[in-house]
Amino acid sequence: MALSESSVKDNSSLERRVISVEISPKCNLRCPECNVGKRLHVNSNERRNDPELVKKIIEHVPYNSTLLFVGLGEPTIPYSQERIGKILHSREDLKGYIQTNGSYPLKEELEGLIKQGRLEVGLSLDQQHFIGGQKKLRIQPEYVESISTIVTDEETQSKMPQGFPNLNRILITPLLVGKKIANSWERLSETVVAYQGISNGVTIYTELPPPVREDNIKLFEEAERDLEPLTPEGWRKSKEHGFYVDMEPTTPRNSMRILIDGNYINIPILAEGSWQEVDKYSKPLTDLPKVFDLEIGRYE
Ligand code: SF4
Fold first, then answer.
1. Does domain 5-287 have CATH number 1.20.930?
2. Cis bond leading into 94, ω under 30°?
3. Which tens digit of pLDDT belongs to each residue from 246-263?
4. Which of 34, 41, 99 to mutate to test the pocket of ligand 1 (most atoms within 8 A of CB)?
């Protein structure tokens, strides 16, 4: 049964949040630069999937949040699609966003949520995923609204993905090896411009993550010379070519990640430490105040 606003109990004063959620305990691909590989590509008996995760999210995720189902694992494996459907049907105040490698078709339940405007789908489509085993896309292309691609300097050929009728934006991300950006700014901006030239009303943009600025000073300074000043929304715009660059620092008040083991962590802490140190900083999701007056066990 879905819940109404009137049943909000004691954390309605928390502001709307965007929360990353590790909803899936595994991934079907093996991408070489996967930054969570050491937590993800382990034997099934080492995986730390909390069987109560859905119930904890329904009970404790702050009211009116947007949940980004972006990993640890692949959020469209059937098991995880069921979890996403259960969460969004139980909490009508929440919205969802799935970032997928496109290996699985979306189930009818999720299709319904997309049609209601409560769920959006982004597809990761690039050489890294291809090397990791992404061969045939099985996701329905009409549900894909955005595509993200990771580029290396060797990948000079820019091809617009075809056959996505509702595609409205493409994010071109530089390749990160540890904290080092493997591209030059020149090549990154050339790639964005090449995509711009062949796009048909699709917004093309790129990103430079502030947490790695110190490790890539030269590249950031080159970029900043080419860009207009930062807007309050955290965007910069290319002076010459007009494309946008996302350089928004992640702020502690609206950044949180829910982990597959039923804990949560603030993203700025993650940026400072390695993925192997997550356990040092995470806290149980059940430490957060309950949102709704739920009966235990009702949703599992
Ligand atoms: S699809 Fe994503 S989570 Fe899976 S291996 Fe590739 S980068 Fe890692």
1. no
2. no
3. 987 655 555 788 999 999
4. 34
